[in-house]
């Protein structure tokens, strides 16, 4: 069984892109397959960027409509599900998805009115581990490991192509698998929190853990923080669950209302 | 792309089954499709049970080989992934899987040498919410809601049939989807903790939350505990991550090593 669906498209998020030409090429790749929403995190050469506009050609509307953010946390604050594109394994315990699986995961959420985004890192070095840590899943194209050299726009293109295959009824298209209770049900029943709320919880928890001396020694702090964020990203808590998590952290720190604070 | 796989089979776990005849019928359903491992949690009429043996017919070896457990926590302590069969929605925030999806989720783990189990509740009333809370996912057959009346053995049969379709190369069989890094990779890269370790963490956390007065008022305690366990089941932490979680709870309770315990 399959369902007819017209999910809205996810946001393409370029994290610290370097060359304007590559931003324009990514916009063209998006336009080819019907993606429209471009977000830019701290592009190296500033914004607006004439090279990006020139390179975009007929996709210049996407470049002109791109939204600019000072950092990744701000760029994803309103999103519910985030996929991070990486070329290599990251030793972060997240689902690793092929592009065709990633578009299905995203479409199931978009039809439930959850907002999704796909992160692409800067040319050559890609995303930082701290960027990947806030994502729900990793997307890796099944390239030959002996010859893996996708550039930024090609990575965007593969994703956009798979998205189009899924949502365009005139293509060879797949359709979304029908869940027992209807497509998108599992997300309609329990909306994940927006990523900004989740990052707020991370900062609360990490502040308390810093205060208690848990994130120690300093040279391991970043790895510990990335691993903790990865765990809770897998949990994908709802807004109510984020409040519960914050409540638990607060009350564990406070201890019993009356009486001693000894554990 | 697909992968040739021969995953070992998951355990079928009957929670507080009532009639021996139904236990025998469940064993026959298992045997039809190549499942062998039966676990029984506190069967109402005791064990061994002659009615179960008689009803099992040629599947009597499964009945005779069944392992008996006093409670669910003991029955699932060595497992890594647990699916709970329910007829109706439970308002617990877990993935809801159709049987064909459930067998794929299980097979991907079994090929990575993770042990899986499927819970079936007692006749008529099914699983308790507290049983469902420790599972990773819910399995619901796509029955007509106007005429939903699967009995225990029929539920086991549907699951066993889908399992057979997936793993038997001579059937119409599906095959497991190929992950970018190979089938089972995501579980090989990070083994979830055994359920016994996870339940140990739950009890540690809940003990501290009780001590601090968080699980209050008493009439809401069970629901709160089920919701918290459901969140962390979704996280599916590894053994190392369970240790990290326990460490965080302990240090949040203890507070800074030197100085006041005020939050």
From TrEMBL, chains A, B:
Recorded GO MF terms: RNA binding; RNA methyltransferase activity
Entry keyword set: Methyltransferase, S-adenosyl-L-methionine, Transferase
Any one Pfam family match given in the protein's UniProt record, by short name: SpoU_methylase
tRNA/rRNA methyltransferase SpoU type domain: residues covered: 11-161
GO cellular component, one term: cytosol
GO terms, biological process: tRNA nucleoside ribose methylation
Record SUPFAM superfamilies: alpha/beta knot
Protein name listed in UniProt: RNA methyltransferase
Naturally occurring in which organism (per UniProt): Rhodomicrobium udaipurense
Species classification: Bacteria, Pseudomonadati, Pseudomonadota, Alphaproteobacteria, Hyphomicrobiales
């Amino acid at each position: 069984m399959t369902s007819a669906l017209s999910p809205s498209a996810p946001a393409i998020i370029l994290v610290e892109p370097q060359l304007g030409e590559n931003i324009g090429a990514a916009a063209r790749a998006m336009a080819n397959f019907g993606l429209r929403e471009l977000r830019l995190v701290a592009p190296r050469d500033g914004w607006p960027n004439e090279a990006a506009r020139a390179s975009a050609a007929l996709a210049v509307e996407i470049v002109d409509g791109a939204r600019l953010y000072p950092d990744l946390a701000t760029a994803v604050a309103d999103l519910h599900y985030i996929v991070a594109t990486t070329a290599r394994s990251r030793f972060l315990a997240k689902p690793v998805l092929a592009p065709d699986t990633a578009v299905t995961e995203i479409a199931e959420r978009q039809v439930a009115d959850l907002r999704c985004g796909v992160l692409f890192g800067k040319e050559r070095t890609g995303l930082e581990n701290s960027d990947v840590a806030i994502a729900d899943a990793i997307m890796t194209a099944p390239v030959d490991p002996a010859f893996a050299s996708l550039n930024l726009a090609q990575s965007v293109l593969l994703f956009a192509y798979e998205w189009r295959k899924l949502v365009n009824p005139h293509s060879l298209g797949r359709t979304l698998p029908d869940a027992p209770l209807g497509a998108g049900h599992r997300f309609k029943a329990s909306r994940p929190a927006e990523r900004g709320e989740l990052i707020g919880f991370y900062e609360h928890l990490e502040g308390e853990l810093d205060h208690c001396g848990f994130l120690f020694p300093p040279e391991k702090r970043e790895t510990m923080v990335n691993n903790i964020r990865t765990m809770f990203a897998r949990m994908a808590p709802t807004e109510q669950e984020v409040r519960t998590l914050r409540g638990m952290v607060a009350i564990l720190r406070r201890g019993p209302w009356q009486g001693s604070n000894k554990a």
